[in-house]
């Protein structure tokens, strides 16, 4: 849990690379961004994939150029298609319209205080499973 690129949560201002804008009243709104996700860890940028999951360790099942810290862990939530849908009453999954095959976001489903959004993400913690196979 946290507000860094390597935790379950989102980066918000004043982070130099926030995942979503926070309105002047402290709220976040749907369809403006959220926690980045990919349909498979193999589709993540090489710097997000632990070195241990590279081709030197896994052969053809690994990712060439994987260079992330081995402290990173790849996670997944659920099964099925990478298609827009509600995760729960507070969170929406939406594929990235710029490239829906490799990136999507878990974002607020309704306008809410930024802290409530982080809490809603934290509430999904037990639904994530380690996935490095």
Search tags:
133 residues, two-stranded antiparallel sheet, 8 strands, globular
Main pleated sheet? 4 strands, antiparallel
Distance between the amino and carboxyl termini: 23 Å
Helix content: under 10%
What average pLDDT do the residues reach?
Answer: 89
Number of helices: 2
Radius of gyration: 15 Å
Derived structural class: mainly beta
Find the count of extended strands (DSSP E, 2+ residues). 8
Share of β-strand residues: 15-25%
User: Low-confidence spans: pLDDT under 50, at least 5 residues?
Assistant: none
User: Which strand order spans the largest sheet, edge to edge or round the barrel?
Assistant: 2-6-5-4
Q: So what's the overall shape?
A: globular
Description:
- With 133 residues, the protein is mainly beta.
- It is built from two helices and eight strands.
- A four-stranded antiparallel sheet has the order 2-6-5-4. Strands 1-7 form a two-stranded antiparallel sheet. Strands 3-8 form a two-stranded antiparallel sheet.
- The model has no long low-confidence stretch (mean pLDDT 89).
Set out the fold topology:
Blueprint: E1 27-28, E2 35-37, H1 55-58, E3 75-77, E4 85-86, E5 91-95, E6 104-108, E7 112-113, H2 114-122, E8 128-130
Antiparallel strand pairs: 1-7, 2-6, 3-8, 4-5, 5-6
């Amino acid at each position: 849990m946290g507000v860094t690129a390597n935790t379950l949560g989102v980066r918000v201002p004043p982070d130099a690379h926030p995942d979503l804008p926070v309105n002047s009243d402290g709220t976040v709104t749907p369809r403006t961004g959220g926690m980045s996700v990919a349909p498979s860890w193999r589709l993540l940028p090489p710097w997000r994939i632990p070195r241990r999951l590279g081709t030197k360790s896994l052969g053809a099942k690994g990712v060439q150029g994987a260079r992330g810290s081995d402290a990173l862990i790849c996670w997944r939530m659920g099964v099925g298609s990478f298609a827009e849908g509600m995760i729960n009453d507070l969170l929406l999954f939406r594929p990235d319209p710029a490239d829906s095959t490799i990136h999507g976001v878990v974002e607020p489903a309704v306008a809410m205080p930024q802290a409530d959004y982080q809490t809603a993400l934290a509430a999904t913690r037990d639904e994530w499973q380690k996935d490095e196979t």
